[in-house]
Amino acid sequence: MLQGRSAGHQAVVGLSDARSRTVNLENIRIVLVNTSHPGNIGGVARAMKNMGLSRLVLVQPRAFPHEQAEWRAASALDVLERAVVTETLEEAIGDCQFVVGTSARERRIPWPLLDPRHCARRIAEVSPREQVAVLFGREDRGLTNDELQVCNLHLHIPTSADYSSLNLAMAVQIICYELRMLLAEGNVPDREDDHWDTPFTTRDNMERFYVHLEQTLTDIEFLDPAAPRQLMARLRRLYSRVRLDEMELNILRGILTETQKWVEKARNR
Amino acid sequence: MLQGRSAGHQAVVGLSDARSRTVNLENIRIVLVNTSHPGNIGGVARAMKNMGLSRLVLVQPRAFPHEQAEWRAASALDVLERAVVTETLEEAIGDCQFVVGTSARERRIPWPLLDPRHCARRIAEVSPREQVAVLFGREDRGLTNDELQVCNLHLHIPTSADYSSLNLAMAVQIICYELRMLLAEGNVPDREDDHWDTPFTTRDNMERFYVHLEQTLTDIEFLDPAAPRQLMARLRRLYSRVRLDEMELNILRGILTETQKWVEKARNR
Q: Which of A170, B37, B107, B133 could bridge to B93 as Cys pair (CB 3.0-4.6 Å)?
């Protein structure tokens, strides 16, 4: 049951989703080589499912299936259940056209090397029509030189020089996140207020507001037209930075109007 | 000891590193609100240190200090030891000029919202001269509406609709990774062969190689000059794709020269 079916994971499944033009996550498998801690396998399964990946291959895991894997997987048990376990790396990636290996160290013979962002773009380019594997090595020693030399491309996650040893599931999370970001491109706002519920107001309305504001501040004798100092300039700078939407502007103008009524009432007593 | 010193974490420390112009990680604190599982606190500490962040603030953690936190922190125990524990969110962020809150849900009142990449850029912009806090809520419910409303900006990590609940430490890892990527910009190759150890060869040398190759293939009677078909075109396409460096080219030319010697030897017998 937990061994999965080899035939299943090799099927090329097209996403019906319109965004699949950028990256086909169904064609991308995460391959863990000789993982020691079953908890990490569970953490990887969750990281994958959170980002929409589902194909996990385990090459000679030390302990799998295991309750720690299931606990860390949380609601990604289906990824664990579909996981394919193999004896050799060759079995895990034999049908792949593009193989990426994660590498922490500089190699004696330089290999094509990218950071996760550029690597995700390369994977995305080939993913609509090819099988892709991303290999992650042992917790303590990573991939061997022999394993790295079957790869088309090496992937290096930038880290602090003080502590460069990433947890395995964290490394998988970062790659899966970069793939997800490609899928999300165009669906997540570039500008922080792209998704606003009310139109932002026009320059003309802002000018009318400033006239109203200046009049009201004069009415309440906060502003002395004979010695205005920089008061209006400072208020203009404040509201320019914030970009008022139409509803907010209406609220502020309502406050000014009410204030003026109270001033008028007070003066007519 | 484990409570840290409040004064220490508020100091504005400039990085001597030349790259600090892009982002000052010393001015960025990660704030965890009401964390339930101490293991997650440890995972967060490790994720931070891996990416070069060191300032962790815990608002009413359920269990801290705790051995599970220490186990998951691995070699980031110093981050746990420097962690500041507070009773209220106000204490945790009172001295901050820029506060970002992570948000999974759409809010009734839209708030400025960015994905991790754009958010990291905004944080980087202010980090050289301002104190920045990035808030992460409870494992099960995130941040409350009141907590989100003290934020200048909301941050949303894109996820699969099938399983959108990220592990807390994974969410922190993604933000810290995005900040690290800004620091690494210009230091990580954009092109996969930027870091090659041998110069890539010139077009002229490639043309000489093709002449040599064609002659050798003719010598060994693999290529019939009267009926060359597309052989040379295919070989040109192959070597164009790979971009030979000078050492590789010398190796190939050496092979051709040796091959020709054997043909000559054979013919002169």
A: B133
For chain A, the maximum distance between any two Cα atoms, rounded to a whole number of angstroms, is: 94
ipTM above 0.90, yes or no: no
Q: Which of A201 and B170 is assigned the larger pLDDT?
A: B170
Tell me if A112 and B158 make a contact (CB, 8 A cut-off).
Answer: no
Quote the tokens at residue A83: 């996981």
0.90 surpassed by pTM: no
Q: Is A124 left (phi over 0), alpha (psi -120 to 50) or beta?
A: alpha
Q: Does A242 touch chain B (CB under 8 A)?
A: no
Sequence ranges of the domains in chain B:
6-184, 203-268
CATH of span B6-184: 3.40.1280.10
Which residues fall within 8 angstroms of residue A95, CB to CB, at 6 or more apart? A10, A131
Beta-carbon contacts of B124 under 8 Å, excluding residues fewer than 6 positions away, are B22, B23, B179, B182
Pairing of strands A84-86, A132-136: unpaired
B117 touches chain A (CB under 8 A): yes
Question: Using CA atoms, how far apart are residues A50 and A28, in angstroms rounded to an integer?
Answer: 15
Q: pLDDT for A193-247, tens place per residue?
A: 777 888 888 888 999 999 999 999 999 999 999 988 889 988 888 888 888 899 9
Fold for domain A203-268? Helicase, Ruva Protein; domain 3 (1.10.8)
Nearest to A112 among B74, B116, B193 (CB): B193
Distance of CA A96 to the CA centre of its chain: 26
Beta strand pairing call for B153-155 and B132-136 = unpaired
Q: Which residue has the tokens 């207020």?
A: A193
Q: Do the beta carbons of residue A42 and residue A14 sit within 8 Å?
A: no
State the best of B174, B190, B194, B243 to mutate against chain A, taking most chain A CBs within 10 Å: B174
